[in-house]
Amino acid sequence: MAHINLLPWREEALKVQQKEFFTALTVIALLSLALVFSVSLFYQAQIDGQITKNQYLKNEIQLLDIRIAEIKELKNKKIALQKRISVIEQLQRSRNVGTQVLDEIAKVIPNGIYITKLVKKGNSISIHGKSESNNHLANMIRAIGLSDLFTDATPESIVTDEKARKLLSDFKMSIRIKGLVDDLDAAVEQAFKGGK
Q1: How far apart are CA 175 and CA 166, in angstroms?
Q2: 152 or 193: whose pLDDT is higher?
Q3: pLDDT by residue (tens digit) across 66-91?
Q4: Using CA atoms, how far apart are residues 44 and 23, in angstroms rounded to an integer?
Q5: DSSP, res 3
Q6: What is 77-98 written as a DSSP string?
Q7: How many Cα atoms sit within 13 Å of 78 on the Cβ side?
Q8: Is residue 34 exposed (0-12), middle (13-18) or buried (19+ Cβ within 10 Å)?
């Protein structure tokens, strides 16, 4: 005899299918959530790693900025020391400048020229004197141009007094001493003030 199932099998089959569907849906949702969470964790780890690298670079940049500031300070100290050394060299060169000037003046003045006044101010010397002729003055200017100590011989005036018995011309001339600054005291003060 045929078996007849009078139970509502379709509703039960539908319930089983719905249960399987919701179970699969829950598993898929959980897997999707886990996948989203793991992707989020991965990207957050990447962001955290980049933030750590950026912070490391900022710290290194700050250290380099400090070192650059130290280097600038050392350069400034070096410049100040070079100025001091230069002034000390100037002082060393100018230590015997008086005797050197007189010795060199004796070498560059030819016969026929007589010095009446010599004034030194800074690295400039003003020479006042008398000359027998302008040729002697020209020879003196050439000798000063060839000198190792003097430079820039500039005649300021040549005056002839025709009433005098001897025809001597009064002259004024300025020359400069090579290798000396104009105002050595000011150079010393500036070098030592700038180095502190």
Answers
A1: 27
A2: 152
A3: 999 999 999 999 999 998 898 888 77
A4: 31
A5: -
A6: HHHHHHHHHHHHHHHHHHTTHH
A7: 6
A8: exposed
- Neighbour tally for 102: CB within 10 Å: 11
Of 94-98, 122-126, 171-175, where does mean pLDDT reach its minimum? 94-98
What angle (nearest 5°) sits at the alpha carbon of residue 97, between those of residues 104 and 88? Answer: 145
Task: Give tens-digit pLDDT for 16-27.
Answer: 999 999 999 999
User: How far apart, in whole angstroms, are the C-alpha atoms of residue 11 and residue 81?
Assistant: 103
E-strand ranges in the chain read 113-121, 124-131, 150-160, 169-177
Give Cα separations from 173 to 128, 148, 176 (angstroms): 7, 18, 10
Question: Global pTM?
Answer: 0.49
* DSSP character at residue 196: -
61 close to 172: Cβ distance less than 8 angstroms: no
- Specify whether the CB–CB gap between 176 and 190 falls below 8 A: no
Q: With 70 as the cut, is the pLDDT of residue 180 above it?
A: no
Q: How far apart are CA 65 and CA 70, in angstroms?
A: 9
